[in-house]
Amino acid sequence: MKQITQTGLTVENAISEALETLQVPREEVTIQVIQQEKKGFFGFGAKKAEVEVTVIEKTAAPENSDTLEQTTEIFEIPGELLEKEGEKEEVPALSNEQAIEETKNYIQSIAKGMKIEDLSITHEQRGKKVSFYLESEKVAMLIGKRGQTLNSLQQLAQLVANKYSNQFMMIQLDAENYRERRQETLEQLADRMADKAIRTGGRVQFEPMPSSERKVIHQTLSRRLDIDTHSEGKDPNRYLVIKPHK
């Protein structure tokens, strides 16, 4: 059972943060409010809201369900490569090292499908997290607009790694230090948009972003008591909204 206790400036903010962390939609959880938010007096005695969010356990999916096949529409990667990975087949569990090599081979196969022949891949492992670093003269193709291709490739690599590994692995792909640069950009954007919400006194809406990027913005703005944030819509068009705190 997946369960998380989360605090936030408001109950809704705490729920949104929990859903971002668990990476599930609201209809797939039960929510218990442990504590309502308290504004305090001139900032003194203020308390954040606290909720407990539990993922509703599901029955096993039918054998013919295909996660990769369901997600191919949002990937900017040759369809035939995605379909090949989506095929159901029994594979023996491998060591982490072997699973990493299989994942590298898969990334290379996608790169070749994109006419990228000079891709170099190195990796670093820290516990369950494995970071892959991609280098190529055509690295911009691997990153894509606002990192969309890199994010799609990362999701696929995650599936491949855990298809072969005998232990769960968390995969991250990076190219030309894009992840760090993108985080800095998102943090700066978050403050600018929050300031705009306060200045206009109204709602400010971001463009659709993956959950990992929305989480960066939520975390960046969690220190501010003058605004509230929450996410709306459904992936891959889910977006974040900022409103002045009332």
Strand content: 15-25%
Any guess at the CATH architecture of the largest domain? 2-Layer Sandwich
* Helical run tally: 8
- The largest sheet has its strands arranged as 1-3-2
CATH fold node name of the largest domain: GMP Synthetase, Chain A, domain 3
Largest sheet: 3 strands, antiparallel
End-to-end Cα distance, whole Å, is 35 Å
CATH 4th-level superfamily of the largest domain: K homology (KH) domain
List the helices and strands in order: EHEEHHHEEHHEHEHEE
Summed over residues and divided by their number, the pLDDT gives a mean of 81
Return residue spans where pLDDT drops below 50 for at least 5 consecutive residues. 59-76
Shape: globular
**Total discrete domains:** 3
Task: Look at the helices and sheets and give the structural class.
Answer: alpha+beta
The total count of strands amounts to: 9
Measured as a percent range, the helix fraction is 40-55%
User: What Rg do the Cα atoms give?
Assistant: 20 Å
| The first-level CATH class name of the largest domain | Alpha Beta
Give an overview of the whole structure.
This protein has 246 residues and is of the alpha+beta class. It has 3 domains: 1-57; 67-176, 2-Layer Sandwich (GMP Synthetase, Chain A, domain 3), CATH 3.30.300; 177-246, R3H-like domain (Ribosomal Protein S8, Chain: A, domain 1). 40% of the residues lie in helices and 22% in strands. It contains 8 helices and 9 strands. It has a 3-stranded antiparallel beta sheet with strand order 1-3-2, with helices on one face. Helix 4 (96-113) packs antiparallel against helix 6 (148-164) and helix 7 crosses helix 8. The two termini are 35 Å apart. Mean pLDDT is 81; it is low at 59-76.
